[in-house]
Amino acid sequence: MMKISLILLLFIFPFSCLQAEDGSKLWLRYVPISKEIAKNRSITTAAKDPIAVRAQQELADFWRGQSIDLKLDKKLTYLKDGFKITGHSGRIKVIANEPVGLLYAAYHLLQLQETNQQVSSLNVEEIPSFDIRMLNHWDNLDRTIERGYAGYSLWQWDDLPEQLSPRYEAYARANASIGINATVVNNVNASPQILSTAYLTKLQGLATVFRRYGIKIYLSVNFSSPKVLGGTSDSDPLNPEVILWWKNKAKEIYTLIPDFGGFLVKANSEGQPGPQDYGRTHAEGANMLADILKPYQGLVMWRAFVYNPTTEDRAKQAYQEFVPLDGAFRDNVIIQIKNGPIDFQPREPFNPLFGALKKSHEMVEFQITQEYLGFSNHLVYLAPLFKETLDCDTYSDGAESTVARLTDGTLRPARKTAIAAVANIGDDTNWTGHHFAQANWYAYGRLAWNHQLSSEQIAEEWIAMTFSKDKAFIDAVKEIMMTSREAIVNYMMPLGLHHIFAFDHHYGPETMGRSKGWPSRLDALVLSSSGHHRLGV
């Protein structure tokens, strides 16, 4: 009882002091420095790139410590978009290979400041675990969000490109502060209209804002777009007419958005069109797009979630379709694989494609939005879930063949390494519908940058930057966060049973049967225990 009272007091005290708190600032609660501090230290850079200048400005506005010199060194290619920070003789020196590395270094320094870390004698070198650290938005063009629980989409399509909401820049800044450098702005169940000239012009406006923070735009594309938009006879990836349409569309995109990242494709899954509609393989479909994007340095993320209801075991469908194609994909194709073989359950084993694919580039897809974890009504801290997958040993290449090391280039060198997660962001004032859901956005970004960080460290950072630096408060809230994932596993999928949620919304339980008369897992358990039925789970 005493412990519960202490936790309540720890919550009540900070929030009584922050009655106007609405969550809109996320973890970026920096307080502008005084004129006196600004007068006694300098933030310098010779770099003229707008991103480098932005890094300088962030530090000039909020850094309370000693003087800082920001420098670009193009010879330090091994840093990629990372940075080096050293502190001596009363000055801090920051070196990066890319301008965005200076921006990431600026946010790193501010994070150290906001969490009361030692900064006087720094010796830090940070190289990101993955080259592409991506958010996938499942946003529709009518501004609804599939599996979204934080209001409507941020993207105000009717106002673009003329009117740019201030939240676009706030979104980009928040992502840059945790190292996210890529975003897919539309649903994987894509409307062909996203590739129309009207929408590409709107996207140009978003790209202009995101570019200031080193973020590239990617698009989910509908495989039938040539037929729907271009009037081709079909969308067969080997049809010269179809290939020409995609070539012309790619040229149009890169003319408007020169730093466009590439395409994300959901094909032949849950009714979506794809190359199999024409007797072609996933590799033939992906390679057609990859060949078209290669002159622009574009990438194709081809999703391995290929669920179509059959009598076969759902968990092995992706394995059966993709393993026979291993090695058939171009080097600018990355197979995007959900962390587990089913569908973002509270707990799943790692997807067997990790390790089984030995000649194809692969990346993890997580889900930050809580489709199966209580929407944005339940406090569930997901860093332990992310870590559980990344740290799992597949033994595919011997011991320590973890999912992380298979996808970060350590064991399987790749042209570009990547990681993705389905965003939980909407136009709610607090961005994510639930203040604590912000922690999952933060945690994903931090692990995409450095997958060796612990869940505990990330939680401590987020609590200190968002609410309070008081150690007792941090410890109490961290305990709630660190136990929340196991709690939801216990009450959302007891006894290891998964997918016992209501068929149409995935929130409440539906223990007495599924649609079309299908038995639920609990029904199956009861029948199995009575000797009448047997169903593997």
Quickly list its features:
537 residues; alpha/beta; 8-stranded parallel beta barrel; 17 helices; 13 strands; disordered C terminus
Strands of the largest sheet, in order across it? 6-7-8-9-10-11-12-13
Distance between the termini: 39 Å
Number of beta-strand segments: 13
Shape: globular
Strand count, sense and closure of the main sheet?
Answer: 8 strands, parallel, barrel
Structural class: alpha/beta
Q: Percent helix among the residues? A: 25-40%
Compute the average pLDDT.
91
Write the H/E string, N to C.
HHEHEEEHEEHEHEHHEHEHEHEHHEHHHH
Name the beta content range.
5-15%
Number of H/I helices: 17
Rg measurement, Å? 24 Å
Q: Catalogue the unreliable spans.
A: 515-537
